[in-house]
Design a protein that fits this description.
Distance between the termini: 112 Å
Structural class: alpha/beta
Strand content: 15-25%
Shape: elongated
Helix content: 40-55%
Mean pLDDT: 77
Strand order of the largest sheet: 2-1-3-4-5
Low-confidence stretches: 51-56, 285-292
Radius of gyration: 31 Å
Number of helices: 15
Length: about 500
């Protein structure tokens, strides 16, 4: 009797020690199992290691299996379960149908499904649905477990919070002295009346390093330090949640858990609360003493030519019919064009270019490259955690290996979440991400970190680090054709008044 050539397909989702141990176990298991079946001959194994099961394109060995099947290199495929073979029901059925048409049977051991059985597709659909539902239940259980830990005082910051580190093996926060000193300096400068941009400049001049060890500070980071309750020894858990697959700010999507005295404070509660009141005062026009003209780009526009001064708002030809609001390098304004040859930009042009760049930003650039990498890594870790659970449930991992590896993955997830939070835009809701047709100063305040002018190029740097540029022209000077008529009209209007 001619034996049927049989192969096995296996997959583990990470390159972790525990799962690689499981991988070696599976290779031996299938080799022995297939050789013990009458009429079958083991001819090889297709194994995807460290690969997510979410998409076929990311499983090269499974693609090779399909290619070899088309060349009739084997007659049967053995695999552990539906969830190990494919995570997408439609994709699963396509593979099963193609191999069946080629005369190749797939045997799913856990579900006891033979794809040559006329009822196989019905069973596969049911099995795939059960697997998807199990994952959903597992996800809900994980959320419930995390919330229970929140209620009991569990803190999760990973290693991403400036000023603190998590003590390995415990749930305690430990102050990092040098970083804590910088945190106190930020609070001190702010209460002295310094703005965020000025504070950033002072920190750079004082050679103070950020969390990455670089002497570089942006306004968003300083704002975050000034507003995070952990610096006064308290914790507000679940500020962000996963909603419909999107990690976003928790605006009444789930409970929040506030705890006091959870760890040693860097900033006294009195000082922290004083800063919060000052933050509110500076952002609330009604609390300011008297009317202050609002120029949305004040202190944001930098000169990229001389790099010595910021651009300032100025009214050119003030009181004349052709008066124009412009932005000009302060160095040039004080010392003339010989000190800086940069181009001036009309206020109307600056606002027009902002609208263009803002609309492009919310359409194409909400995530910077670093944030995309972090989110992809988070997805991989979450999938790895699920796969690890499946291996444990299927008794392919012992309890000790499972606990050790699961702890490592959970710690890494917590760290990545903190990194994402540190790189995302804070204080913004979905309603903020809307296109605009005309200039909106509120969008400048929320989205723009800085603006630079380099001759005829204006560049807007958004708070997640993305920079978008536009070429501009100011058009014809305002005192050319028709200036005298405008002057007469103004004089008549003044006389009537």
């Amino acid at each position: 009797m001619v034996k049927k050539k049989a192969v096995a397909y296996i997959r583990v989702s990470t390159q972790s020690d525990a799962q690689l141990h499981s991988f070696e176990y599976q290779v031996d298991y299938w080799k022995n199992t297939i050789n013990e079946i009458d009429g079958c001959e083991y001819v090889g194994i297709y194994a995807d290691k460290g690969i997510s099961g979410k998409a076929l394109a990311k499983r090269p060995q499974q693609l090779k299996l399909i290619a070899d099947a088309r060349m009739h290199k084997f007659d049967m495929v053995f695999t552990k379960s539906v969830s190990r073979f494919a995570r997408n029901t439609e994709e699963l059925l396509e593979i099963v149908r193609e191999l069946r048409e080629l005369g190749i049977k797939i045997w799913f051991e856990k579900e006891q499904i033979d794809t040559f059985n006329p009822s196989a597709e019905t069973y596969l659909i049911i099995a795939a649905s059960i697997a998807e539902n199990d994952l959903k239940i597992y996800s809900e259980n994980m959320k419930w477990s995390i919330r229970q830990r929140y209620k009991k005082g569990w803190i999760s910051i990973g290693n991403g919070m400036f000023g603190y580190r998590m003590i390995e093996g415990t749930n305690d926060l430990e102050i990092v002295p040098d970083e804590a000193d910088t945190v106190r300096r930020i609070y001190e400068l702010y209460l002295e009346g310094r703005g965020l941009k000025t504070i950033a400049d002072i920190l750079k001049k004082e050679n103070r390093k950020n969390k990455s060890g670089e002497i570089d500070w942006n306004l968003r980071t300083i704002s975050y330090v000034l507003s995070n309750e952990k610096y006064k020894g308290c914790v507000l858990n679940q500020k962000r949640v996963v909603n419909l697959g999107v990690y976003e700010i928790n605006n009444n999507l789930a409970p929040k858990y506030y705890m006091e005295g959870t760890h040693e404070a860097i900033i006294s509660p009195d000082v922290f609360d004083k800063v919060q009141r000052e933050l509110e005062r500076r952002t609330n026009v009604r609390l300011k003493g008297g009317h202050v003209p609002s120029y949305g780009f004040s202190k944001l526009v930098q000169c990229a030519v001389c790099k010595k001064a910021a651009f300032a708002h100025k009214i050119q030809n003030c009181g004349k019919p052709w008066q124009t609001e412009i932005w000009v390098c302060q160095n040039q304004n004080l010392h003339g064009i010989k000190s800086c040859s940069n181009k001036r930009i009309k206020d109307t042009v600056l606002k027009e270019k902002f609208v263009e760049c803002y609309n492009e930003f919310i359409t194409h650039h909400l995530d910077n490259d670093k944030l995309k990498v972090l989110k992809n890594k988070l997805t991989e870790l979450v999938n790895a955690e699920r796969e690890l659970k499946m291996l444990y449930v299927n008794r392919m991992l012992n309890s000790e290996d499972y606990k050790k590896e699961n702890t490592n993955i959970r710690n890494e997830i917590a760290y990545i979440n903190d990194q994402i939070a540190a790189n995302e835009m804070r204080g913004l809701s979905r309603s903020d991400y809307k296109p605009i047709e005309e200039y909106d100063e509120d969008k400048v305040n929320k989205f723009i970190e800085s603006v630079s002018i380099n001759h005829s190029i204006v560049s807007f740097k958004f708070i997640n680090g993305v920079e978008i540029s536009r070429e501009f022209t100011n058009g014809s000077p305002g005192n050319k054709k028709g200036w005298y008529e405008r002057y007469l009209d103004q004089q008549r209007n003044n006389t009537e008044v």
